[in-house]
Design goal:
- This protein is mainly alpha-helical and 86 residues long.
- It is 70% helix and 0% strand.
- InterPro entries: SpoVIF.
- This is Stage VI sporulation protein F.
- It comes from Anoxybacteroides rupiense.
C-alpha cells in the first residue's frame, strides 16, 4: 500500500498509522490467556482510538478474550470499543 493511503486513513480516523503498526506487531506473539497482557492491549487500543472504556466493559472484553485465548487483531477490539459510544 502506498503512503497516500495511510495518510488518508490517518486523516479520516485521526489514528496514527505508526501506532496501529506498533500495536499489530505487539499482538503477534501476545499471550491472550494472560489477563494482564489482555488488559494492556485493551487499554492501548482505547488510547489509540481515543475512547474511554468503562471498567465494566474492560472486564467483559478481558473475560471474553482470556476465556477463548485465541489470537486477536486490532479490528476485533476496535469493534468492541465502537459498540461503546463515548
Amino acid at each position: 500500500m502506498d503512503n497516500q493511503f495511510f495518510k488518508n486513513v490517518e486523516k479520516k480516523t485521526g489514528v496514527n498509522m505508526k501506532d496501529i503498526f506498533e500495536l499489530a506487531n505487539s499482538l503477534q506473539n501476545a499471550n491472550f490467556k494472560d489477563e494482564q497482557t489482555v488488559r494492556g492491549v485493551v487499554k492501548r487500543v482505547a488510547q489509540i482510538a481515543n475512547r474511554k472504556v468503562p471498567k465494566e466493559l474492560e472486564d467483559q472484553i478481558v473475560k471474553m478474550i482470556t476465556k477463548n485465548g485465541k489470537q486477536l487483531d486490532f479490528n476485533t477490539i476496535a469493534n468492541m470499543l465502537n459498540n461503546n459510544k463515548k
